[in-house]
């Protein structure tokens, strides 16, 4: 079997061989300096996954674990081609967009009696039922409904057949290792197998598989079944929002030809060289920010290196990108329709 570089090694390799995306050392130091202040203000940490996002489950039971598994299985491709075609979901008198449409729809469905945390139910859900569960309140449907139906039913069947119908069983087979859980997910659930070929090497990006492990860690606050002794080995989750934030903050740079392509709204293919460069360089950029941040905090005696990880940085940067999307509008995201992010 061909060797696949893990996300961290893939990020390093891609950054070293990238043509159109580069990492700016000064920008890395600047972002780390800002994050140093934010960390000391307790603006980000493992507890923020729940406390800052009211649509995430607040309980720490088996249903909550299965909620995370279903949501992360369907967590892909929410961007709209225009403001007029945004999918919006209303829940408890509030309208949500992007990733939050999925969380709102999931909670709405549970309130309405749909057993969306039960693999025996959603492994057999019909396309019509899922379309109703994920229905939009804006007239524009959630993108890729057919693909969402396919991956949800496929994943549900595997969970029932191999893991007793509960993602908690997957956790308990992994000996408190984030990497063991990551391997289990990638090897058993095909829709999480986010890999590409770059410069003749197979590289793993694993955005959704890693965010699944990290979200379980966040849900359970790193305790009990959610304690992973190697959580620091995960990288950031290479999507389209965090790279945009990294460019805006000066840590990543795009070539003029790539920037023009983005401004022209060209649709990328999954695994295309420039798409892999954007994602891989983002991974390595956050690794460098993490190293510099850990150094700064250690200098101040605020935190040890093991207290800082790419998961926390990604959570902060993703929220930052959402909060500052208007200021960052001049930096276009790369457009792609795929199940991997």
From TrEMBL:
Keyword Magnesium: no
A Pfam family reported for this protein in Swiss-Prot or TrEMBL: Q_salvage
Assigned keywords, A-Z: Hydrolase
UniProt KW Hydrolase keyword: yes
GO aspect biological process, one term: tRNA modification
Enzymatic reactions: queuosine 5'-phosphate + H2O = queuine + D-ribose 5-phosphate
GO molecular function annotation: hydrolase activity
EC number(s) from the headed UniProt entry: 3.2.2.-
Domain of life where this protein originates: Eukaryota
Function as written in the Swiss-Prot or TrEMBL entry: Catalyzes the hydrolysis of queuosine 5'-phosphate, releasing the nucleobase queuine (q). Is required for salvage of queuine from exogenous queuosine (Q) that is imported and then converted to queuosine 5'-phosphate intracellularly.
Family label: Belongs to the QNG1 protein family.
Record's protein name: Queuosine 5'-phosphate N-glycosylase/hydrolase
Biological source species: Petromyzon marinus (Sea lamprey)
């Amino acid at each position: 079997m061909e060797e696949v570089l893990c996300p961290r090694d893939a990020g390093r390799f891609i950054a070293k061989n990238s043509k159109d995306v580069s990492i700016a050392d000064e920008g890395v130091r600047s972002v780390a300096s800002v994050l140093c202040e934010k960390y000391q203000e307790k603006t980000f940490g493992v507890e923020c996954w729940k406390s800052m996002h009211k649509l995430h489950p607040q309980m720490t039971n088996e249903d909550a674990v299965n909620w995370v598994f279903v949501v992360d299985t369907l967590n892909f491709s929410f961007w709209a081609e225009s403001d007029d075609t945004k999918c919006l979901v209303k829940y408890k008198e509030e309208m949500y967009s992007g990733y939050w449409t999925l969380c709102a729809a999931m909670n709405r469905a549970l309130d309405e009696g749909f057993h969306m945390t039960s693999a025996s139910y959603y492994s057999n859900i019909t396309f019509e039922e899922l379309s109703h569960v994920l229905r939009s309140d804006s007239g524009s449907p959630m993108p890729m409904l057919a693909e969402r139906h396919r991956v949800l039913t496929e994943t549900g069947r595997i969970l029932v057949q191999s893991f007793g119908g509960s993602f908690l069983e997957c956790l308990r087979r992994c000996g408190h290792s984030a990497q063991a859980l990551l391997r289990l997910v990638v090897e058993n659930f095909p829709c999480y197998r986010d890999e590409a070929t770059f410069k003749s090497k197979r590289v793993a990006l694993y955005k959704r598989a890693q965010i699944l492990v990290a979200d379980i860690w966040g849900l359970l606050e790193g305790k009990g079944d959610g304690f992973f002794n190697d959580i620091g080995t995960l990288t950031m989750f290479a999507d389209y929002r965090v790279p945009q934030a990294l460019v805006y903050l000066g840590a990543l740079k795009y070539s003029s030809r790539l920037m023009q392509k983005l401004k022209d709204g060209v649709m990328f293919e999954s695994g295309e060289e420039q798409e892999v460069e954007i994602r891989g360089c983002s991974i390595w950029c956050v690794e460098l920010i993490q190293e510099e941040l850990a150094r700064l905090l250690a200098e101040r005696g605020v935190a040890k290196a093991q207290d800082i990880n790419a998961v926390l940085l990604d959570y902060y940067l993703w929220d930052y990108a959402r909060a500052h999307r208007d200021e960052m509008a001049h930096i276009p995201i790369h457009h792609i329709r795929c199940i991997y992010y």
